Recover the amino acids of this structure.
């Protein structure tokens, strides 16, 4: 028995020595693999930068096969696979990563971007929100903010305004005093349908940087949306000419301010002149619309034509009537004509037509 | 002996069992370490020989030059380590009492690393099995264990090595039982499990828990999808058949070449592989990274089909030309590609919702393994261990079963056994192994009536008239050419062929038995024979003796006279349970 014990002890010694030796070889191999993986990764990145997706994918794949535990290699592989159009495989790579670390923001962001390409809005939003709810270091606040902005832009692009607004409120709560950022958030509030907050952020941005063109345009647009055309015009006048949208709004604001018959403290003659001009434009447009070969002469349009004829005689014999009452009646009719023509005729509206519609809305005729 | 009490005997047995258990753990660890080292060495060799971005000349020359070197090693220093290693391990277990010389694991390690590392399309699992089994056998011999214990250590070492090589402990145990021992109910299950677990623990402590393949969670998306998996089973069976038939045919062609070419044969494979690698680098070595890609849907249909057939051809050439490496990994590779291709097709044409092509690639791996290796249980558990997901089991079993049945129908002899038969080694069947009764060895007459091949027919007739045997063996015990009956000799003489050599009359096809065949098989074959049944050894094809009806009758009378009707099997088994000291005495006796 003594001999067997000695032999077993020798065997155990040999086993321990073999374990140590094998471990040393394994560590050395691992180091070699990491060097090889890094070399493949560098080559793949070069290929990726030069737009050669196929070579880049092959390189990233080799890097991953050499260092499968490296997250960065896998993320880059997934990104390149998506670039190469291999969405399913990219998704699988990312899902495998996510399985290991469900709260990893990078993985969730990549998944979100991938899903965004595939038009699965729900999945995209979920991954973005998972990424935002993930583990972020304090120094990553700006990165996290950028991600939230990315999510908001995605939601706005998919017409999910309510969700976008709720994300915007979260974003606005911790926004630094930076003009560009405030201006961007202002424009996003505007797109999400909240011109009041849009105006607040744009004004703040102008205060921080009075020359900020985006902030000026945003403030002008927000004021325009709120129906405050004077304020809108004030901001829009300072916006550089290249901004065509702002120029368009400026023209409209000017038309509204100069053509609104219901503006308070307006002389009787001027009120009458504005009303005549507005009514004449609407009546002409209605006639033009009814004369179109493709026009659908509905009962409502014909009724409006009769009303217009009646109002012409009223307007001509109205010297004794209170201009304000007449203007109310006229603006209401003009608004209804413009809206009906817009819905029934193919003729595109001129800026003045749009201004007349906005004047009607401004004075609450939309509800009538 | 009469001084030893029953309790002493029990204590001795318990101690021996404990020692065997401890030995199983140590062997499991050592086999696992050897498998890990083998894998690492292949990686190193690949890196040293090819580097990161090899030139075309280097790709072409490396397999050729290395194959010339390994050809010399395999022909001169390490004979018997060509190919997979699984058939040799089976032969060692069943026919050589588990005795494997020390140079076998060493030779397999060196040549396996060189062959696989130089780009040959071969697997590392088969060689790992032979290395593990060899280490176990060498340790058993070194400790001077009883022959029965040495034999028992072979599957223990094989399971340990495979568990580490493939990171699938359950499949490794099943493989050892199903393929090496050939019996899932074997009593060695405990030792193999212990070795397998020890091996995997060591492997994971060194290489980490990173799985061999990164497989997403797959499942059966729609019940009708089973039709797709059934189609995969049929295709898998067909591809398995193509693989096995081509492998055996080409290997036979290489075996039929003159013996002087054996040393250069691996280089022929090297030339083919070098040229192939220039066009399809994905066929190089083990190729698990491409299997991983197929499992993750990273390969398109055309690539999958191309790699399926290129890998099949490359593996056959590498293997048949006599290089050292296995067919375990290639069968998984080919299966993954075939499965991926079928999966892509099913995705395109199926009118019902289907799983990803990767799911089919995964099932394809098991399907080809079941069809080629013919170990269905191992294949199912292997895939289960890779995925750790029950969802894939039903389609896997459907596809595996179909592939297995088709392969068995058209290639009745499993590939490992067929490879051994090409080397003139016949493994005992399950029935023979299970037989506890009398065997051909007990009945046979060692004095076989031989006629030299150049004996003239009229001389042979003269001898036959004197000896009056039912038939005569033509040739020598080492090289049996055939059988000739006295009637045949008479006919030849009447036809005026008395001056011809008797070899021209020898019947080349004749009934024969192996020494371990049970007596009922002997009687059955004797009834179909000319009245004389040669007993041929499994390992070398040597004639050990003959059996006639007279021998059966003589044997029966002898047994009746001695009053024994049952074989003393229990005594023999008790003999197997000798302690280390007893084994030492037996070995010493055998050496004397």
């Amino acid at each position: 028995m003594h001999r067997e014990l000695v032999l077993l002890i020798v065997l155990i010694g040999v086993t321990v020595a073999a374990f140590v030796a094998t471990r040393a070889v394994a560590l050395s191999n691992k180091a070699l693999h990491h060097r090889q993986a890094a070399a493949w990764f560098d080559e793949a990145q070069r290929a990726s930068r030069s737009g050669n997706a196929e070579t880049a994918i092959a390189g990233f794949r080799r890097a991953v096969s050499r260092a499968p535990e490296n997250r960065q290699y896998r993320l880059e592989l997934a990104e390149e696979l998506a670039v190469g159009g291999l969405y399913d495989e990219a998704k699988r790579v990312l899902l495998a990563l996510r399985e290991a670390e469900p709260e990893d923001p990078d993985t969730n962001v990549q998944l979100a971007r991938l899903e965004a390409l595939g038009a699965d809005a729900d999945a995209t939003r979920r991954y973005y929100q998972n990424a935002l709810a993930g583990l972020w270091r304090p120094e990553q606040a700006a990165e996290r903010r950028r991600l939230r902005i990315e999510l908001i832009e995605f939601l706005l692009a998919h017409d999910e305004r309510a969700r976008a607004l709720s994300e915007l409120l979260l974003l606005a709560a911790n926004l630094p005093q930076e003009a560009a950022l405030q201006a961007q958030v202002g424009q996003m509030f505007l797109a999400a349908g909240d011109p009041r907050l849009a105006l607040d952020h744009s004004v703040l941005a102008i205060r921080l940087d009075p020359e900020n063109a985006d902030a000026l345009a945003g403030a002008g647009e927000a004021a325009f949306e709120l129906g405050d055309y004077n304020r809108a015009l004030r901001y829009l006048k300072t916006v550089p000419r290249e901004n065509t949208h702002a120029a368009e709004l400026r023209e409209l604001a000017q038309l509204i301010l100069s053509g609104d018959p219901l503006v308070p403290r307006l002389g009787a003659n001027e009120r009458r002149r504005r009303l005549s001009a507005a009514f004449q434009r609407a009546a002409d447009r209605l006639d033009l619309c009814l004369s179109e070969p493709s026009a659908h002469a509905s009962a409502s349009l014909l009724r409006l034509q009769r009303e217009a004829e009646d109002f012409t005689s009223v307007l001509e014999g109205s010297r004794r009537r209170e201009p304000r009452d007449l203007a109310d009646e006229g603006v209401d009719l003009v608004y209804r004509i413009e809206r009906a023509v817009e819905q029934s005729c193919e003729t595109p509206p001129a800026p003045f037509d749009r201004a007349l519609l906005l004047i009607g809305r401004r004075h609450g005729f939309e509800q009538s | 002996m009469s001084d030893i009490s029953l309790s002493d005997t029990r204590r001795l047995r318990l101690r021996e069992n404990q020692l065997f258990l401890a030995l199983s753990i140590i062997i499991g660890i050592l086999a696992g370490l050897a498998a890990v080292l083998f894998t690492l060495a292949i990686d190193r060799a690949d890196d040293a020989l090819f580097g990161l971005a090899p030139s075309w000349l280097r790709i072409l020359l490396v397999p050729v030059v290395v194959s010339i070197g390994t050809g010399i090693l395999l022909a001169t220093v390490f004979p018997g380590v060509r190919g997979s290693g699984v058939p040799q391990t089976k032969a060692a277990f069943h026919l050589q009492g588990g005795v494997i010389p020390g140079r076998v694991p060493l030779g397999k390690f060196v040549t396996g690393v060189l062959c696989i590392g130089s780009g040959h399309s071969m697997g590392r699992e088969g060689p790992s099995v032979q290395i593990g089994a060899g280490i176990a056998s060498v340790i058993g011999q070194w400790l001077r264990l009883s022959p029965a214990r040495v034999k028992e250590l072979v599957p223990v070492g094989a399971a340990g090595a495979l568990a580490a090589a493939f990171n699938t402990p359950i499949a490794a145990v099943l493989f050892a039982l199903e393929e090496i021992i050939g019996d899932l109910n074997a009593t060695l299950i405990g030792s193999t499990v212990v070795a397998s677990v020890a091996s995997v623990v060591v492997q994971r402590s060194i290489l980490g828990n990173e799985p061999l393949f990164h497989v997403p969670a797959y499942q059966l998306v729609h019940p009708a999808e089973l039709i797709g998996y059934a189609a995969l089973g049929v295709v898998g069976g067909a591809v398995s058949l193509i693989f096995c038939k081509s492998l055996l045919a080409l290997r036979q062609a290489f075996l039929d070449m003159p013996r002087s070419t054996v040393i250069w044969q691996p280089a022929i494979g090297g030339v083919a592989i070098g040229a192939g690698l220039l066009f399809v680098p994905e066929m190089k070595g083990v190729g698990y990274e491409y299997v991983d890609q197929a499992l993750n849907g990273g390969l398109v249909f055309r690539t999958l089909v191309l790699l399926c057939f290129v890998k099949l051809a490359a593996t056959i050439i590498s293997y048949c030309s006599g290089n050292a490496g296995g067919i375990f990994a290639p069968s998984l590779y080919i299966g993954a590609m075939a499965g991926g291709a079928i999966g892509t097709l099913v995705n395109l044409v199926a009118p019902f919702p289907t799983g990803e092509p990767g799911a089919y690639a995964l099932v394809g791996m098991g399907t080809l393994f079941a069809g080629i290796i013919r170990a269905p249980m191992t294949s199912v558990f292997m895939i289960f261990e890779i995925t750790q997901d029950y969802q894939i089991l039903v389609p896997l079993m459907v596809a595996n079963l179909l592939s297995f049945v088709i392969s068995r129908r058209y290639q009745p002899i499993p590939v490992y056994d067929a490879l051994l038969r090409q080397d003139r080694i016949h493994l005992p069947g399950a029935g023979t192994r299970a037989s506890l009764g009398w065997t051909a060895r007990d009945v046979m007459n060692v004095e076989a009536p031989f006629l030299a091949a150049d004996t003239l027919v009229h001389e042979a007739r003269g001898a036959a008239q004197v000896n009056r045997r039912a038939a005569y063996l033509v040739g020598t015990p080492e090289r049996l050419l055939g059988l000739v009956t006295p009637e045949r000799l008479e006919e030849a003489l009447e036809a005026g062929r008395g001056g011809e050599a008797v070899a021209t009359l020898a019947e080349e096809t004749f009934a024969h038995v192996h020494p371990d065949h049970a007596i009922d098989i002997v009687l059955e074959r004797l009834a179909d024979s000319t009245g004389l049944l040669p007993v041929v050894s499994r390992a070398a094809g040597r004639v050990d003796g003959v059996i006639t009806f007279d021998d059966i009758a003589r044997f029966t009378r002898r047994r009746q006279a001695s009053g024994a009707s049952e074989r003393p099997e229990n005594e023999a088994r008790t003999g197997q349970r000798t302690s280390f000291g007893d084994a030492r005495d037996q070995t010493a006796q055998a050496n004397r």
Notes: The first helix of chain A runs from residue 2 to 49. Chain A has a mean pLDDT of 87. The interface with chain B takes residues 1, 3-4, 7-8, 11-12, 14-15, 18-19, 22-23, 25-26, 29, 32-33, 36, 39-40, 61-62, 65, 68-69, 81, 86, 88-89, 92-93, 95-96 of chain A (CB under 8 Å). The two ends of chain A are 110 Å apart (CA to CA).
